[in-house]
Amino acid sequence: MVFSDHGFSTFRRSVHINSWLVENGYMKLTKKITEDDKDGGGLFQYVDWKNTKAYALGFGGIYLNINGRERSGIIEKGEGADSVAEEIIKGLSELQDPAGGHSVVKKVYRSKDIYSGPNAGNAPDLIVGFQDGYRVSWQTAIGGAPAELVEDNTKKWSGDHIIDPSLVPGILLTNFKIRRDDPFLLDIAPTVLDCFGISVSDMEGQTLI
Question: Which residues are 26's β-sheet partners?
């Protein structure tokens, strides 16, 4: 059995999610970011947290600034958070590349719809799935918000898998017939254990044997 949890695709344009949040009023800054600010003001050094509703960190994750969870949270859990999340989902889903007008985002996922288990609460509130050719920027990964919204990827790192999972599906090769038409990532571990005769009754996935 040979498997990979993802495929691969081109990475031609970088998307600054925090810059979009700033542009659309979800993140407030204490100063305007310029080209002189390293990494677009990385590490959230210019964020006005008491007036910020959301922030992006890592590779495509967006967190809501929730009262009681974040140190300076201003959004209340429940309807308040759901409303902001839906606004962001709608806005990002409509985002177009200023250079050419191409769609940038294929889908924005709610973490509660895709994650489960005891540590699901540590996941970002939203996960951005990008269109082919686009990827979250390095600056976003460390909390930066450059002046531009989308820019060319000029680095040698020109391929990646951090786009919408439907565009880079995983790969599974076996020397036995699997019993599902739509195998899922969570099925891999129970399948491996089943190969060794180990019980998988308490796992979320299902054996493919």
Answer: none
